[in-house]
Specification:
A hairpin with a 5-residue loop joins strand 2 and strand 3. The chain has a domain of about 70 residues: Roll (Ubiquitin-like (UB roll)), CATH 3.10.20. Strands 1, 2, 3 and 4 form a four-stranded mixed beta sheet that branches. The protein is built from two helices and four strands, in the order βββαβα. Helices cover about 20% and strands about 30% of the residues. With about 100 residues, the chain is α+β, with helices and mostly antiparallel strands. It binds zinc ion. Zinc ion binds next to loops.
């Protein structure tokens, strides 16, 4: 039986193969748009659609709450996790990363 691994799931949009990486994801709130860069995400290799991984949802929620409190119309933030282990998820050996992620 083949186990279910992160990075091997199929894209809900096009069925393409997903890889772990970092994405810039815009969030539309009531009166503002918050763009968060470097969000750990599964990214489709075919249509490039990013999907947040579950481990970052709490951090994203906290950042959006802070952004909401600033009352800015447009805000661009860089993802910063309160959980150190998240960075090791992204760079875990054996995962197929997109070519553009190998430069670092
Ligand atoms: Zn796709």
């Amino acid at each position: 039986m083949t186990g279910k691994h992160v990075g091997n799931s199929a894209c809900p949009v096009c069925g393409g193969r997903m890889s772990l990486g970092k994405a810039t994801i815009p969030f539309v709130l009531d009166a503002s748009v918050v763009v968060i860069k470097d969000v750990p995400a599964e990214i489709c290799g075919s249509c490039r659609e990013p999907f947040m991984i579950g481990a970052v949802v709490d951090d994203i929620s906290a950042m959006l709450q802070r952004a909401h409190n600033l009352h800015a119309e447009v805000l661009v933030l860089t993802f910063a996790s309160s959980d150190e282990s998240l960075s090791s998820i992204i760079y875990e050996p054996g995962l197929e990363l997109g070519a553009e992620l190998r430069e670092g």
